[in-house]
From TrEMBL:
Main location per the UniProt record: membrane
Membrane topology: Multi-pass membrane protein
Family membership noted in the UniProt record: Belongs to the cation diffusion facilitator (CDF) transporter (TC 2.A.4) family.
One matching Pfam family: Cation_efflux
Molecular function as annotated in GO: monoatomic cation transmembrane transporter activity
Subcellular location: Membrane
SUPFAM superfamilies membership: Cation efflux protein cytoplasmic domain-like (SSF160240), Cation efflux protein transmembrane domain-like (SSF161111)
Regions that span the bilayer: 12-39, 45-63, 84-108, 114-136, 157-176
Entry GO CC: membrane
Organism whose genome encodes this protein: bioreactor metagenome
Domain Cation efflux protein transmembrane, residue spans: 13-207
Ranges where the Cation efflux protein cytoplasmic domain occurs: 215-288
Protein name, as recorded: Ferrous-iron efflux pump FieF
Annotated keywords: Membrane, Transmembrane, Transmembrane helix, Transport
Length: 305
């Protein structure tokens, strides 16, 4: 846990410093070069600084051990952080959308942006690629979906910067400054779309769901491989951080001893962990074969998949 905390904190600090440098350079150049697209790209990088600060704060929370109030620990803090960040990103996108829209609707006369805007955009793309690669590697090493999501967000920033570069090229080539504003408008829509996607994805974990529903087929297949284990039902799975919590009922011969039934349950746990990665805990409830089941409110059966 301590090693994981160090990785999360180090990766967060590197992200803060790197994004701050890129953001300041793009905002400064965007202002002096007169490029709304570059300025918008700089604002987007500024939101990445905020994201990294939240990531740093969250990194110190998710590694806390369970206690009386939070028996499952604090792993879901990264999901809550993602929800907060979606609002931050959405606000930045809306600000840029309004600014770009005003420039297009009111057609304010503008000079062509300075050529330096192209150079800072190229520099930004290289820097973002490096940060994204580092965040992804550290996220895999620490098993942190928060860092991996941050890496994907930075990868999207490279796409945004590429869009800025294309917009600048056509702005200079066609001698039409309004194309810079149009590029800024398109980038703002992309930022808003990213914010909505992050918001929706975080709902899954907060609602005790799973993103990859194929996990249920894997659970049923794992149980079927265990001799003596029959009719898996009332299967429930949820995610805490990047770990799965699985609960299910199985049936066994009612004449078995407690030790024999317990051994079958242990074998079910082993089989599931061999078929599914990142399983934190499994609870197996054993029932005699043929016991009458009343309709249950929660859980999945094989026949409804």
């Amino acid at each position: 846990m301590k090693n994981r905390e160090k990785i999360l904190i180090r990766a967060s600090w590197i992200s803060i410093i790197g994004n701050a440098a890129l953001s300041i350079s793009k905002i400064f150049v965007g202002i002096i070069a007169g490029s709304i697209a570059v300025l918008g790209d700089g604002i987007d990088s500024a939101t990445d600084v905020v994201i990294s600060i939240v990531t740093l704060f969250t990194a110190r929370i998710v590694t806390r051990p369970p206690n009386n109030n939070y028996a499952y620990g604090y792993e879901k803090a990264d999901t809550i952080a993602a929800k907060v960040l979606s609002f931050v990103i959405f606000f930045a996108g809306m600000q840029m959308l309004i600014s770009s829209g005003k420039n297009i609707l009111f057609a304010v006369p503008r000079d062509l942006p300075s050529i330096i805007a192209i150079y800072v955009t190229l520099f930004s793309m290289i820097g973002k690629l490096g940060l994204a690669y580092y965040q992804f590697r550290q996220g895999k090493l620490a098993g942190s979906p928060m860092l991996i999501a941050n890496a994907k967000n930075m990868r999207n920033d490279v796409i945004i910067s590429a869009g800025v570069l294309v917009g600048l090229f056509f702005t200079f080539y066609l001698d039409m400054p309004i194309l810079d504003s149009i590029t800024g408008l398109l980038i703002s829509l992309y930022i808003i779309r990213s914010a909505i996607n992050i918001f929706m994805e975080s709902n899954v974990a907060l609602m005790d769901g799973v993103k990859d529903t194929s996990i249920y087929n894997k659970i049923f297949e794992a149980v079927e491989k265990v001799p003596g284990a029959c009719n898996p039902h009332r299967v429930r799975s949820r995610q805490i951080g990047n770990m799965y919590m699985i609960v299910l009922d199985i049936e066994t011969d009612g004449e078995l001893t407690l030790n024999e039934a317990h051994e079958i349950a242990d074998n079910v746990e082993v089989s599931i962990k061999q078929n599914i990665e990142n399983v934190y805990d499994i609870v197996v409830h054993i029932e005699p074969i043929g016991k009458h089941h009343s309709e249950e409110k929660f859980g999945l059966n094989r026949d409804i998949l």
